[in-house]
Description:
Blueprint lengths: L1 H74 L8 H16 L2 H15 L13 H11 L7
Amino acid sequence: MGFIFSKSMSENIKIQQESMLMNARLQLERQLIMQNEMRERQMAMQIAWSREFLKYFGTFFGIAAISLTAGAIKRKKPAFLFPIVPLGFVFTYQYDLGYGTLLQRMKGEAENILETEKSTLQLPKGMITFESLEKARKEQSKFFIDK
Protein backbone atom coordinates (compact mmCIF):
# COMPACT_ATOMS: atom_id res chain seq x y z
CA MET A 1 0.00 0.00 0.00
CA GLY A 2 2.85 2.38 0.80
CA PHE A 3 4.37 1.66 -2.60
CA ILE A 4 1.13 2.54 -4.44
CA PHE A 5 0.73 5.73 -2.40
CA SER A 6 4.39 6.65 -3.06
CA LYS A 7 4.04 5.97 -6.78
CA SER A 8 0.91 8.12 -6.95
CA MET A 9 2.68 10.96 -5.07
CA SER A 10 5.67 10.85 -7.44
CA GLU A 11 3.37 11.06 -10.46
CA ASN A 12 1.53 13.99 -8.89
CA ILE A 13 4.82 15.75 -8.14
CA LYS A 14 6.02 15.13 -11.69
CA ILE A 15 2.76 16.51 -13.13
CA GLN A 16 2.98 19.53 -10.82
CA GLN A 17 6.60 20.20 -11.86
CA GLU A 18 5.64 20.02 -15.54
CA SER A 19 2.77 22.40 -14.88
CA MET A 20 5.09 24.83 -13.06
CA LEU A 21 7.59 24.66 -15.92
CA MET A 22 4.83 25.36 -18.44
CA ASN A 23 3.58 28.30 -16.35
CA ALA A 24 7.11 29.71 -16.04
CA ARG A 25 7.61 29.39 -19.80
CA LEU A 26 4.25 31.08 -20.46
CA GLN A 27 5.10 33.92 -18.06
CA LEU A 28 8.51 34.42 -19.69
CA GLU A 29 6.89 34.46 -23.13
CA ARG A 30 4.41 37.08 -21.99
CA GLN A 31 7.17 39.21 -20.49
CA LEU A 32 9.19 39.05 -23.71
CA ILE A 33 6.16 40.02 -25.78
CA MET A 34 5.36 42.89 -23.40
CA GLN A 35 8.95 44.18 -23.48
CA ASN A 36 8.99 44.05 -27.27
CA GLU A 37 5.65 45.85 -27.41
CA MET A 38 7.01 48.59 -25.13
CA ARG A 39 10.17 48.87 -27.25
CA GLU A 40 8.10 49.22 -30.41
CA ARG A 41 5.95 51.92 -28.82
CA GLN A 42 9.02 53.84 -27.66
CA MET A 43 10.52 53.65 -31.14
CA ALA A 44 7.24 54.85 -32.65
CA MET A 45 7.25 57.81 -30.25
CA GLN A 46 10.85 58.60 -31.20
CA ILE A 47 10.00 58.59 -34.91
CA ALA A 48 6.86 60.66 -34.30
CA TRP A 49 8.89 63.17 -32.25
CA SER A 50 11.46 63.41 -35.02
CA ARG A 51 8.78 64.01 -37.65
CA GLU A 52 7.13 66.68 -35.51
CA PHE A 53 10.48 68.37 -34.83
CA LEU A 54 11.19 68.30 -38.56
CA LYS A 55 8.04 70.32 -39.26
CA TYR A 56 9.12 73.13 -36.94
CA PHE A 57 12.79 73.00 -37.83
CA GLY A 58 11.97 72.80 -41.54
CA THR A 59 9.93 75.99 -41.25
CA PHE A 60 12.76 77.68 -39.35
CA PHE A 61 15.33 76.44 -41.86
CA GLY A 62 13.27 77.66 -44.82
CA ILE A 63 12.76 81.12 -43.35
CA ALA A 64 16.42 81.35 -42.30
CA ALA A 65 17.66 80.21 -45.73
CA ILE A 66 15.49 82.73 -47.56
CA SER A 67 16.41 85.54 -45.15
CA LEU A 68 20.13 84.78 -45.22
CA THR A 69 20.14 84.49 -49.00
CA ALA A 70 18.27 87.80 -49.32
CA GLY A 71 20.70 89.43 -46.85
CA ALA A 72 23.71 88.06 -48.74
CA ILE A 73 22.39 89.39 -52.05
CA LYS A 74 21.28 92.75 -50.63
CA ARG A 75 24.52 93.44 -48.74
CA LYS A 76 26.73 91.61 -51.23
CA LYS A 77 28.30 89.56 -48.45
CA PRO A 78 28.39 85.81 -49.13
CA ALA A 79 29.34 85.23 -45.48
CA PHE A 80 25.63 85.42 -44.68
CA LEU A 81 25.21 82.07 -46.45
CA PHE A 82 27.52 80.12 -44.12
CA PRO A 83 24.91 79.39 -41.41
CA ILE A 84 22.86 77.56 -44.03
CA VAL A 85 25.45 74.75 -44.16
CA PRO A 86 25.21 73.51 -40.54
CA LEU A 87 21.46 74.13 -40.51
CA GLY A 88 21.25 72.04 -43.67
CA PHE A 89 23.07 69.16 -41.96
CA VAL A 90 20.66 69.24 -39.03
CA PHE A 91 17.67 69.40 -41.38
CA THR A 92 18.99 66.47 -43.47
CA TYR A 93 19.64 64.38 -40.35
CA GLN A 94 16.14 64.99 -38.99
CA TYR A 95 14.57 64.21 -42.37
CA ASP A 96 16.58 60.99 -42.64
CA LEU A 97 15.57 59.99 -39.11
CA GLY A 98 11.88 60.74 -39.62
CA TYR A 99 11.29 59.66 -43.21
CA GLY A 100 14.51 58.12 -44.51
CA THR A 101 16.53 54.99 -43.93
CA LEU A 102 18.57 56.14 -40.92
CA LEU A 103 16.82 53.76 -38.52
CA GLN A 104 17.45 50.79 -40.83
CA ARG A 105 21.12 51.74 -41.15
CA MET A 106 21.40 52.15 -37.37
CA LYS A 107 19.77 48.74 -36.88
CA GLY A 108 22.23 47.16 -39.32
CA GLU A 109 25.18 48.76 -37.54
CA ALA A 110 23.84 47.63 -34.16
CA GLU A 111 23.52 44.05 -35.45
CA ASN A 112 27.09 44.25 -36.75
CA ILE A 113 28.33 45.44 -33.36
CA LEU A 114 26.46 42.63 -31.60
CA GLU A 115 28.02 40.06 -33.93
CA THR A 116 31.59 41.30 -34.28
CA GLU A 117 32.32 43.54 -31.29
CA LYS A 118 30.75 41.64 -28.41
CA SER A 119 33.58 42.54 -26.02
CA THR A 120 32.78 46.26 -26.21
CA LEU A 121 29.31 45.58 -24.78
CA GLN A 122 30.45 43.88 -21.59
CA LEU A 123 29.66 45.61 -18.32
CA PRO A 124 32.48 46.73 -16.05
CA LYS A 125 32.94 44.13 -13.29
CA GLY A 126 30.84 41.64 -15.31
CA MET A 127 27.17 40.77 -15.00
CA ILE A 128 25.22 41.93 -11.97
CA THR A 129 24.50 39.02 -9.63
CA PHE A 130 22.03 38.52 -6.83
CA GLU A 131 24.93 38.41 -4.37
CA SER A 132 26.31 41.78 -5.52
CA LEU A 133 22.84 43.35 -5.28
CA GLU A 134 22.33 41.94 -1.80
CA LYS A 135 25.75 43.20 -0.72
CA ALA A 136 24.94 46.71 -1.99
CA ARG A 137 21.49 46.61 -0.39
CA LYS A 138 22.94 45.56 2.96
CA GLU A 139 25.55 48.33 2.81
CA GLN A 140 22.91 50.97 2.11
CA SER A 141 20.26 49.67 4.47
CA LYS A 142 19.92 51.44 7.82
CA PHE A 143 17.77 48.68 9.28
CA PHE A 144 19.69 45.57 8.28
CA ILE A 145 18.32 42.30 9.54
CA ASP A 146 20.39 39.26 8.53
CA LYS A 147 18.33 36.16 7.82
